[in-house]
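Protein Entry — a single chain follows
Next Lines — sequence and tokenised fold
***
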Amino acid sequence: MLCVGLFGLVYSIGVGTNTQETHPKLSWKQCSSGGSCTTQQGSVVIDSNWRWTHSTKDLTNCYDGNLWDSTLCPDGTTCSKNCVLEGADYSGTYGITSSGDSLTLKFVTHGSYSTNVGSRLYLLKDDNNYQIFNLAGKEFTFTVDVSNLPCGLNGALYFVEMDQDGGKGKHKENEAGAKYGTGYCDAQCPTDLKFIDGIANSDGWKPQDNDENSGNGKYGSCCSEMDIWEANSLATAYTPHVCDTKGQKRCQGTACGENGGGDRFGSECDPDGCDFNSWRQGNKSFWGPGLIIDTKKSVQVVTQFIGSGSSVTEIRRKYVQNGKVIENSYSTISGTEKYNSISDDYCNAQKKAFGDTNSFENHGGFKRFSQHIQDMVLVLSLWDDHTVNMLWLDSVYPTNSNKPGADRGPCETSSGVPADVESKSASASVKYSDIRFGPIDSTYK
């Protein structure tokens, strides 16, 4: 499939016709001051990384296991000429189901031709555009059930600064666009993406030693990120990350930071972010089965972006469970005791108390972050961690450390090994529902 651009002939990511692309419906609510909410009809699309990629001529896999076919994909441009992204069977292949305003993601799904692990989806405005959110001065609320998520899993709901059309307009090489889930980026500058800027990321591709389905290419994709929610039934955190450049940007090699083989803090993005994890901040009775926030039950999660105009200076968290509004826990770590929300002052105090690199401040802190959260795309996902077994979220990490901040959750340091989680907890799942967005204090009661 070809397209002619201003600079001559270029090859596109094509789309296949073997499976029709039908997006699961997912409604959400736009609220106004006073609490009046209007239902919006939306849908979700799975990321292109999960899709079957095959030859334009037949059904030969362009990507199989964790390798590109060397004949079809000797380089990225040729690969993009020879290959297409296929439509998705959301429930049968990926274990994704929706009903009204709720979305359920199953962890492991055994399909007719393959076994799928995890998923990453985006909220769509229509079949060709992601829904864009301006978080400044607003409140984002959703209900979540993590009762079926054990140690080592992450039901993550977050925002990233992706292009609304998945990069289709910016990169004429990209025919697939938002309709097929292209254009992903985040503050880790991931290099495991199969397509970036409309071109296959097959150049320099190296399969990962500990993941039979993934590898890393020469390029990565960077952008600012707001982790509204990273959680399982034992631990949770919310975390802003900021990059120097606005919007999605392709990086190469060590400029992608740790994921590109360079220094962790060598990219233009803040990989650590400024997190608030109640357990890590010293309160071990706040989040978990039977605790103040009882993870055996669904909970409504409220995140408020406080500030004036387009400037955000604080991110507050509230929970609603059993009809009761519960304020976020206060930190008990020395030097941070007055904080139960995220601000520049909290971030500086936390980084000092834990002895961590203050990459959030180094990349501009809330002043720059405010500029990046006005055009954000909502991501809903479920994943396990082939790098450090999710210990950074729910256990002690680094595992041999006893310094403040290393204790992040109650899970054993031996937990979270993907092979174990995928076999023993294959039936794990997360359910997101009742997404609401509006002015401060308009989306919950």
Remarks:
- The radius of gyration is 21 Å.
- Residues 1-10 have pLDDT under 50 and may be disordered.
- The chain is about 10% helix and 35% strand.
